[in-house]
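Dear Dr. L.,

I hope this message finds you well. Following up on our conversation about the binding site, I have prepared a predicted three-dimensional model of the protein together with acetyl coenzyme *A. For your records, I am including the exact sequence and ligand specification that went into the calculation, followed by the structure tokens. Please feel free to forward this to your student if that is useful.
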Amino acid sequence: MAEMLRAPKGLDGVAVADTGIAKSDADGTLIYRGYTIRDLFEMSTFEESTYLILYGKLPSRGELEEFAAKLRRYSLVPHNVYELVRAIPHEAHQMDVLRTAVSGLGATEGGISSEEQKLSIIAQMPTLVANCYRLNRGMEIAEPDPSLSLSANYLYMLTGRRPDAFESWAFERMLILYLEHDLNASAFTVRVVASTLADVYSACTAGLAALKGPLHGGANEAAMQMLLAIGSADRARAYVQETLARREKIMGFGHRVYKTVDPRSQLAKRLLRELLEKEGKGLDTYRLCEAVENAVWEFKKLPSNVDFYAAPLFATLGIPIQTFTPIFASSRVVGWVAHYDEQLVDNRIYRPDAIYKGEKGLKYVPLDER
Ligand code: ACO
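The resulting structure of the complex is given below.
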């Protein structure tokens, strides 16, 4: 038998695929298709960065307009999916609702081409995230307003309030930060499912399942709960010290790749400050976050990750906490679709091995004799 290679726990440091989509580096850099996250954050739109991630190049004006129009056209969700959502108990976690709804979409949209499936799932996610929450709260379904930009519309459906230009710009920045992050747990999950030649809905349903966990996308919701529990900057240091002493995790901190800085977190931090100042809300929230950040660095030398500053930013925009992780998912689905396609270019089914540590050679004892 051939010698088996033992991969480290969590596949740390093991490359399992080639990718041209995105690259995060320990030095605190992130690129999407060669462009820095900072440039895309400052200058791009959600639709443009989505196009870049899917097709590997920045679109011309004509290509962008056509692409944005397509996303608008596909953004309506079939109403039988909402029937499925209505049947889910109201206490359910919004990621469970969304995962069920996306799986339901897969069962309904089978008749369209695989290319259309990929664009529809991206276009329908914001509508689904907002309406899963609205139905859960007994509110009417909100239909997308074609006169609004994707981010303004999304925010409007989430909060029931038409955002001003800065609010929708800020929200769109967060969607850009969340679009893609090379081979994280959910992207890897999507690639494993793609490698079996299952459809894109199945792969994204699995991606949603992986993203839900608090060690991955679920961290933004958990970080918000933590900030609410701490309450003010003067209590942050003691809270962090006590939590670490109990050997518990501080949500929104630490990263497999970034060891000193997550560039997305620092961009989100700057944005939070700008938003609070623009809205005249004072800087208490910002100071609280910074106090937590300083304390975690002091005691554990861990940097904040994107989820830490995303949480107060979403809260400042009036977005319900239950939708924080679904919003992350609605953006990350773009990266998942790109990974799905990339996996199929040179596919081989993922089938690792395991070192068997169980017993061998046991003699079967019939039920009556045990
Ligand atoms: N709070 C406290 N301790 C932590 C944290 C944290 N947030 N993160 C890592 N550590 C500890 C680990 O327990 C480990 O301690 P040890 O050496 O005493 O055993 C040490 O720091 C080093 O951990 P890593 O090997 O760097 O972490 P790993 O790669 O295994 O896990 C992860 C990365 C899951 C992100 C981890 O940092 C974590 O659980 N963070 C909190 C959850 C979170 O914010 N997730 C979002 C990640 S970003 C994203 O998905 C968008």
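In brief: The pocket of acetyl coenzyme *A is lined by residues 10, 215-217, 219, 249-256, 300, 302, 305-307 (CB under 6 Å).

With kind regards,
A. P.
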